[in-house]
Write a structure and sequence with these properties.
- By secondary structure, the protein is mainly α.
- The protein contains eight helices and no strands.
- It has helices at about 1-30, 35-45, 55-65, 80-95, 110-125, 130-140, 145-160, 170-175.
Length: about 180
C-alpha cells in the first residue's frame, strides 16, 4: 500500500506541474487579448490545482481504484459505480469538475479554463488526443450545455495549438509513471 501511495503522490505532483504549465499557455493567450486580471486568476487557480488530492481521504479513495481500470485514459470507457464513488470525493472538492456543480451551467470561466488545463495535462500523461477525448467525454459523461462545452473546447484548442514544450526530465517522469 505504501508503494501505491507513493506512486499516486508522484503522479499527482507531476500532474500539478503540467496543469500549471498549461495554465501558463492560457495565461499568455489571455494576456495577449488584454484579459490580465483573468490571466492572473487562472495562474493562481492552476498553482493550487488538485491540492485536495494530498488529503488522506482522497489518497485512499484514489488508490482503491483498480490499476487495470482505464476510465481515466480511455474516453470510451464508462466509469463503473465503484470508480464514480471513489472519485466523487475529489469532484466535491474541486469546482473545475462539472460534477461539483448542481448544474454545469454554473461553471465559471475560471472553472472551464482550469478544466481545460487539467484535461490537457492528463492528455500528456496518458498520451491521448485531447480534442478527440473531450468530444467523446462530452457525449458519454459530461453532457455540458453547449455554451459551456464551446468555451471548454475553445480553450482546449488554444492549448493544443500553442502547446507545451516538455523538457527531457518531464518526459522521463511521464514515462516512468506510465510503466
Amino acid at each position: 500500500m505504501i508503494r501505491d501511495i507513493e506512486t499516486f503522490i508522484d503522479d499527482t505532483l507531476l500532474h500539478k506541474q503540467l496543469v500549471l504549465e498549461s495554465g501558463k499557455v492560457l495565461y499568455k493567450y489571455l494576456f495577449e487579448i488584454g484579459e490580465m486580471d483573468l490571466a492572473l486568476e487562472l495562474l493562481k487557480r492552476c498553482s493550487v490545482h488538485d491540492n485536495s488530492k494530498l488529503n488522506y481521504e482522497e489518497i485512499m479513495s484514489f488508490i482503491s481504484i483498480p490499476k487495470d481500470n482505464d476510465g481515466m485514459k480511455n474516453a470510451n470507457t464508462q466509469m463503473d459505480e465503484f470508480m464514480k464513488k471513489a472519485i466523487s470525493i475529489h469532484w466535491k472538492n474541486n469546482s473545475h469538475h462539472p460534477e461539483y456543480h448542481d448544474n454545469p451551467s454554473n461553471m465559471t470561466e475560471l472553472d472551464i479554463m482550469e478544466m481545460a488545463c487539467d484535461c490537457y495535462a492528463r492528455s500528456f500523461q496518458f498520451g491521448t488526443d485531447l480534442l478527440k477525448f473531450i468530444e467523446i467525454r462530452q457525449k458519454e459523461r459530461f453532457n455540458l450545455p453547449l455554451d459551456v462545452y464551446d468555451k471548454y473546447k475553445f480553450y482546449c484548442e488554444i492549448l493544443v495549438t500553442q502547446g507545451l514544450k516538455l523538457d527531457k526530465s518531464m518526459q522521463e517522469k511521464i514515462k516512468k509513471l506510465n510503466k
